[in-house]
Amino acid sequence: MRKYIAMAAITFLFSLSTAAQSQLPEIGIQKNLALGVVTEIGASKIVLKTKDGTINAILLSNTVYKRLPPDNLKLSAATPASFEDIAVGDRVLVTGEVSEDKSMISSNKMFLVKGTDLEAQAEQQRQEWRRRGISGKVVASDSAAGTISVKISSVIGADTTLTLTPKENAKFKRYSERSFRYSDAVDGVFADIEKGDNIQALGDRSEDGTTFAAEEIVTGAFVTVAGKVKSIDVEKNEVTVEDLITKKDVTIAVVDTSLLKEFPAEIAQRLARFQQMSASGAAPVRGGGSGQGRGAGRGGRRGPGDINQMLNRFPTITVGDLKAGDLIAASSSKPKVPGRVTAIKLLSGVGPFLTAKASSGGGSRRGVGGSLSVPGLDALDF
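and the corresponding structure tokens:
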């Protein structure tokens, strides 16, 4: 029974990445196991951060250590390891007896995935999506014809629309409701795709830039909320804004998995100018190097990996750093309760984008749900 539980838990290990250690899988702490990120290493224990809290894994004289490669999380792929192989940031599954208060587990076996291995794999994925990936919105989906019409917005050029066709045996995935992370996406099918979905695809773009043959497609239904902060509740970790489009109040809840960043003023102003020029058809188009494979210069948008690399370098903020009157934007899964969303990403310092929209009479580029598209707000992350 314990072996069965361990095997099931191991499949969750790959859903972690060093870029977001707080995004732990749902398994957390159970009766006979704990899964988490190593935060501290002692002489006789290691400390794990799990979704259910911190737990001390007590090392026994007969504890068995195994290492798993990040691209093959089967027990058959495990190789012998030792206590000395464990480092802060590694992902560890511990099997053994958990105390009643879930503060301690007496370890009889540890399955280890090195954080450095996961980061190397994530970087490889980022580079591949940067080179051969596209990011946009679904304009139309025709299951009978097997095609998807995708609108690709650009920061430094005109918007483009292309026809995407899945390759034979193409993989379909759907975003988690709480995440734009690739590792959190679940298996999907063509029929899941709807007009207005966010879509990221990996494959080959035609020379003329009008078609795309996709070997992997990730889609999801999200909304974007943008507006002026009306009130802040630090204790509840919530902020209320007046939505720029609907003029109605929307409460944005921030959770552990939410990414909060501040757009530096100079960068926001520069990109907003590009957006404004693009909307009027005056924006320059840069050739090549945009991370969208052949034909990428037509539209000039960077790949999702580039956008997130830019975003991750921005200053991290908290709800307490916001103040009434700030202009912010947040991405969220489609709300189940009207007037309330849970932030996947929340960006402050987006005033230049919202001002550009207002000055253009509402003609600027809009994101899912009708609000302005802010670079990086709804891009695939690894």
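(Above: one complete record from the training split.) The domain at 2-113 is CATH 2.40.50.140 (OB fold (Dihydrolipoamide Acetyltransferase, E2P)).
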